[in-house]
Write a structure and sequence with these properties.
The structure holds 2 protein chains of 2 kinds.
Chain A (H helix, E strand, L loop, with lengths): L12 E2 L2 E5 L2 E5 L9 E5 L5 E10 L2 E6 L12 E6 L3 E4 L7 E3 L15 E4 L16 E2 L4 H4 L4 E2 L6 E3 L5 H11 L9 E10 L1 H13 L6 E7 L10 H14 L4 E7 L1 H14 L13 H9 L3 E2 L6 E9 L8 H9 L2 E4 L2 H5 L12 E2 L2 H4 L9 H25 L6 H18 L8 H12 L12 H7 L21
Parallel strand pairs in A: 9-15, 13-18, 13-19, 14-15, 14-16, 16-18
Antiparallel strand pairs in A: 1-7, 2-3, 3-6, 4-5, 4-7, 5-6, 8-10, 11-12, 17-18, 19-20
Chain B lengths: L8 E8 L2 E5 L8 E5 L4 E9 L2 E6 L11 E8 L1 E4 L7 E2 L6 H8 L18 E5 L6 E3 L3 E6 L5 E5 L5 E7 L3 E3 L4 E5 L4 E3 L2 E4 L8 E3 L4 E2 L4 H6 L2 E2 L3 E5 L6 H11 L4 E9 L1 H10 L16 E7 L5 H19 L3 E7 L1 H14 L13 H9 L3 E4 L12 E10 L9 H9 L2 E2 L4 H5 L12 E2 L2 H11 L4 H25 L6 H18 L13 H23 L4 H6 L3 H6 L8 H17 L5
Parallel strand pairs in B: 8-23, 21-26, 21-27, 22-23, 22-24, 24-26
Antiparallel strand pairs in B: 1-2, 1-6, 2-5, 3-4, 3-6, 4-5, 7-17, 9-11, 9-14, 10-13, 11-12, 13-15, 15-16, 18-25, 19-20, 25-26, 27-28
């Protein structure tokens, strides 16, 4: 059975199984394998599965089986060392290919001839090597470009609720992100974790239709694939992304979906290991674990490439304080949050602007990038929209008649803002168009209210709504005739 | 019993994440540093059971085999203290990140060793003692100009006492050079080592009497803390904790800043490293980086090193305090440190306390904040009339899950720190920054600082502060009524309060960290902005008494003029303010009832 090559020692088989629980198998004699090692598990049926050593003590080792433990028995199953750590094959040939969650091709094409086999765990980028992100990415979405600017090397998640069109937004970002007069090569790395076949199809088809199909590397773990592989898929994807960005000079956009499934897989392993559960049963180290994914974004001094991450997650019950969005928000550089009420009103993209944030926005905007007054303009619109939302709630209680004249102006502003600024349907907007719409909307408010913007800027751009020639221009939509 | 070197070597018997167990170890002490495995990873002893020793390892343990060797080093986790710390960036165990970059490239490898202080760099040493002088721990034996503006005092390490036998002449030395010997033969160098988990001794703790000025209006006016005090900044994600901590690092009146990035973002650190060298230290005019020490353990760096990073940071801060400086420590975020404690505790299978945190969490947090203080440092100067004073101020960010302040880390930290700067996501959503919730925040230092403000701040500071606080409180009450009956139901007097409170919020409390003229606000401007709003209110009240309708009063376009004053620079603000006060009085005073 063992292969007749020089690494025969590596392939020595052990019949060491003592205990099986959930996805975990316990082995006797834990000192044979290092932690993190990948083992081949030979079932009596001849089937071979893979597992990873999670913990080793003198008396036993804990092995997690990637393809699950169904059909594994204690007597008839043996294990052998496959590799000292989980690795993924890296080469520029991965571009355009499809893999499963552990990096095995599923597109029917032959395996990759690797230029390097890199450990998927990855190491932390030395903070002094990091180049602070500052290249503006124009996504064509007003709520992002104008108010929560995405920059290269950032990690900006999308928080969605079940049934909200997060995939469409992610796709819009992918379709537009490689632009802006830059000729460095661009590639999208896509990692699917436990999503449905329908969603996978949507992404792959949309990438292809947008002309990005050949520039996509996909690691796909679908809902019916083994849950444990979900822990590997994002790491394989990010290892390949880092390789393409920092060794081959690509601008890499990594789309990870859905982190909620990833966290559930993490919880599954944790509970099988009988660890003390934290909030909602998720393990206490989930923050650390998630950061080992999210922190793998950025740029490095002296290297042209970058890794930008768009992780997506479903907020269970639309609850932003749920541990998954909560811990994510503490690690990522902002968040885009979707709103169910806006979605019901038919506004696309239904971005719930108030809780959205881009921490790196300042690095991507301002003089020589967008406009010197971009930050003030955005803050002014934000504050006015928030005021409008407050008044809307107030009106629901006290009625419109009890509002002051000024309150009513804010209310009108805020309704127009939702319809015209947030709602853009599938139209792709340049940042200049977004600015123009913003100034038009500010015309709903008295000029004296715009104290967040410098006076000379207000003087230059402000036109009261009464004086605007075309206060409500139609919004182009590409789906009108669809 | 004598312990031979042989016995201090054990073997690895269990690996569990950042924790290991080693068997066959004798004579190791709690807190001792071990070298683990072939790579020699650093670990710290956290439990001893007979010959079995448990340790937390400051680097990733992946790929290690059981049976590998574990060696005790005999010393606790320590840092090197000497010239060359300012401007440097260290990881949690004081390895300079720039050295790690040279040895392992852009990604941090494992098992790397690196000394904290450059052994080859020469420093210009000037002795301040002579042979025959009696010295004791804390005494200055000479000075080194560490940066253009900051003189590094070479201290006799705590606990050392004797008479100087030899002292080096003025000249250039490296940190390893012996620059003095005591009569008992003990050598003194430009640096010494200090264990991090033990506070450096002080002679006496003084009551805090001077404010730690942050140049943030809401903090300096409403919730000031003292030099030597402590504050916590809790807030959900996106509330702006990091911007608050960074603004303080940039503009506060501390002489030295130690910034601990504990379990936070790598890109944020990159931002600091890009930005700080370009910025100017407000006290000295030198580069801001030259008053700053960064201790960085990003969230994807090993978890146990988060615990170390907090202690490393505060020990470095204490060392500059001992030299007589006002030092501020920024810890972002202490919650990540607490989580590291939780993770290690759970691996030790200790009985968990609240939310899985170990029961000793509050003890650790209390001990950390108690290392702050306004002190007389140790040394023979304490018997003179001008003892050397220094202070250590700490501001700890807290990241409560779900933004809920009832969780253990926030609650424990609140009990032991002197001020709560509560950040509020709802304010951040409106882009009200700093998003400090004025109803929830407090400072226990204000009473002790009244004397200082009376003497040094613009006249009327304390009165105006009280008026502002009262107005904000009145607004909260009135808003409750508005929620029920609408704003139209209020009297003019009450509507004026709402209008003025809104001005206080928008003009005074909000401050843009990204605006050139607004990011740092000196006391005269802080006071001036508030004074204008309150004088405006007083004049409006007079007009109401003259039976002029509020609508007419607020239609006078003064509000925008006052708001625009924010854009004025600190220099010459008072004159512009006085002119504006005149204008307010004139315009509103000139209104007549129809």
């Amino acid at each position: 059975m063992s292969q007749t090559n020089t690494s025969e020692m590596l392939h020595k088989e052990y019949w060491d199984l003592t205990y099986i629980s959930g996805p975990l198998v316990f082995l006797k004699n834990g000192d044979r394998f290092p932690t993190g090692a990948i083992l081949d598990v030979h079932l009596a049926t001849g089937e071979v599965r893979q597992g990873q050593i999670l913990e080793a003590t003198k008396t036993h080792a804990v092995l997690q089986l990637l393809q699950g433990t169904r059909g594994v028995d204690i007597q008839g199953t043996s294990v052998s060392l496959k590799a000292d750590a989980a690795r993924v094959a890296c080469s520029v040939d991965v571009i355009g290919r499809r893999f499963n969650g552990t990096g095995i091709p599923i597109d029917g094409l032959p395996p990759i001839v690797p230029e390097k086999e890199l450990e998927i765990v990855g190491s932390a980028i030395n903070p002094v090597s990091r180049n602070a992100p500052n290249d503006f990415i124009e996504t064509g979405i007003s709520t992002i470009d104008g108010f929560n600017t995405l920059v290269r090397g950032q990690k900006l998640p999308i928080f969605l609720g079940s049934g909200l069109p997060g995939n469409e937004i992610a796709n819009m970002i992918v379709q537009n992100a490689g632009t802006k007069g830059d000729d460095t090569p661009f590639v999208t790395v896509f990692a699917a974790m436990g999503i449905t076949a329908r969603e996978t199809q949507y992404f792959l088809r949309s990438f292809e239709e947008g002309g990005k199909g050949s520039q996509v590397v996909a690691f796909i773990n679908q809902a019916d694939d083994p849950a444990i592989e979900r822990l590997f898929a994002p790491r394989c994807a990010l290892t390949v992304a880092e390789y393409l960005a920092f060794e081959k000079g690509y601008q890499v956009l990594v789309v990870l979906t859905d982190l909620t499934n990833y966290c559930d897989a993490l919880r599954q392993i944790s509970s099988a290991r009988e660890e003390i559960p934290g909030r909602r049963g998720y393990p206490g180290y989930m923050y650390t674990d998630l950061s080992s994914i999210y922190e793998r974004a950025g740029r490095i001094h002296g290297k042209p490439g970058s890794v930008t991450q768009i992780p997506m997650l479903t907020m269970p019950d639309d609850d932003i304080t749920h541990p998954i969005p909560d811990l994510t928000g503490y690690i990522t550089e902002g968040q885009i949050v979707l709103s169910r009420p806006l979605h019901r009103q038919g506004i696309f993209p239904p971005v719930d602007l108030l809780p959205c944030l881009s921490r790196l926005m300042n690095n991507g905007i301002g003089k020589n990038r967008t406009q010197p007054w971009h930050r003030e303009w955005s803050n002014q619109l934000y504050a006015a929209y928030a005021e409008g939302q407050r008044i809307k709630k107030l009106m629901a209680i006290v009625g419109e008649d009890a509002l002051t004249e000024q309150d009513k102006k804010y209310l009108r502003f805020s309704n127009a803002f939702e319809a015209q600024m947030i709602g853009q349907q599938f139209e792709r907007r340049t940042i200049e168009e977004t600015f123009k719409i913003g100034w038009r909307l500010l015309g709903h408010l008295p000029k004296s209210e715009l104290t967040r913007i410098k006076r000379e800027v207000v003087d230059e751009f402000y036109v009261a709504i009464e004086d605007q020639s075309d206060p409500t221009p139609p919004i182009k939509t590409q789906i009108e005739n669809a | 019993m004598a312990v031979t070197e042989q016995q201090k070597v054990g073997t690895l018997v269990r690996i569990s994440g950042p924790m290991i167990e080693a068997d066959g170890m004798h004579g190791v002490t709690m807190g001792e540093i071990l070298r683990v495995g072939k790579l020699g990873l650093m670990g710290e002893v956290i439990r001893i059971e007979g010959e079995k020793v448990y340790a937390q390892v400051f680097e990733s343990t992946e790929g290690m085999f059981l049976g590998e060797e574990v060696v005790a080093t005999g010393v606790p986790l320590s840092v090197e203290l000497g010239p060359g710390l300012l401007g440097a960036t260290f990881d949690g165990i004081q390895r300079p990140l720039i050295t790690l970059q040279q040895s392992s490239g852009d990604f941090i490898g494992r098992g790397l060793t690196a000394v904290a202080l450059d052994r080859t760099r020469k420093w210009q040493f000037t002795p301040t003692v002579k042979a025959g002088d009696a010295v004791q721990g804390g005494d200055i034996i000479g000075t080194v100009p560490e940066t253009k503006a900051i003189e590094h005092k070479i201290l006799v390490p705590p606990g050392v006492k004797g008479v100087i036998a030899t002292i080096a002449a003025a000249g250039e030395y490296v940190v390893e050079d012996v620059i003095a010997t005591l009569q008992d033969g003990a050598p003194l160098k430009l640096y010494h080592k200090s264990p991090v988990k033990q506070p450096r001794p002080v002679h006496k703790v003084l009551p805090p009497t001077e404010p730690f000025l942050t140049r943030q209006r809401v903090l300096d006016m409403l919730f000031p803390i003292a030099k030597g005090g402590s504050a916590i900044v809790p807030g959900g994600f996106g509330a702006g904790k990091t911007v608050v901590e960074q603004s303080m690092s940039k503009y506060s009146n501390a002489q030295i800043i130690v910034y601990v990035g504990c379990g936070e973002r790598g890109n944020e650190m990159a931002e600091v490293l890009t930005e700080f060298p370009e910025l100017i230290d407000p006290n000295t005019g030198d580069s801001l980086m030259n008053r700053t020490i960064l201790v960085v353990n990003t969230s994807n760096m090993p978890v146990a090193a988060r615990d170390a990073s907090v202690y490393t940071g505060i020990t470095l801060a204490e060392y500059y305090r001992d030299q007589g400086y006002d030092v501020a420590l920024m810890a972002d975020s202490t919650s990540r440190w607490a989580e590291a404690l939780r993770e290690i505790s759970s691996r030790l299978e200790e009985m968990p306390g609240e939310e899985g945190y170990p029961t000793y969490l509050s003890e650790r947090i209390a001990a950390f904040y108690e290392r702050c203080g306004n002190v007389i440092t140790i040394g023979s100067h304490t018997s003179t009339d001008t003892p050397r004073k220094g202070s250590l101020t700490a501001v700890g960010a807290v990241s409560p899950p779900g933004g809920d302040f009832s969780e253990p880390v926030t609650q424990t930290s609140m009990r032991v720190s002197g001020a709560l700067w509560a950040l509020d996501a709802a304010l951040a959503y409106r882009r009200h920054y700093p998003s400090l919730n004025w109803n929830k925040s407090y400072s226990l230092y204000f009473d002790g600082l009244k004397g200082w403000f009376d003497e040094n701040a613009p006249q009327g500071w304390i009165m105006r502060r009280q008026q502002a606080a009262t107005l904000l409180q009145r607004e909260t009450e009135l808003q409750d009524i508005v929620q029920l009956v609408g704003p139209d139901a209020l009297q003019d007097q009450e509507r004026l309060i709402l209008e003025v409170a809104r001005m206080i919020r928008e003009i005074f409390l909000q401050q843009s960290a990204f605006s050139e003229n607004d990011a740092a606000c000196q006391l005269p401007k802080t006071f001036g902005l508030l004074e204008m709003i309150l004088v405006y209110k007083e004049e409006c009240e007079r007009a109401i008494h003259r039976e002029i309708a509020l609508n007419r009063i607020t239609a006078v376009p003064l509000r925008e003029d006052i708001a625009r004053m924010k854009e004025e620079p600190n220099d010459g603000f008072t004159e512009k303010k006085d002119a504006m006060l005149e204008k307010i009085k004139q315009v509103l005073g000139g209104l007549e009832a129809k």
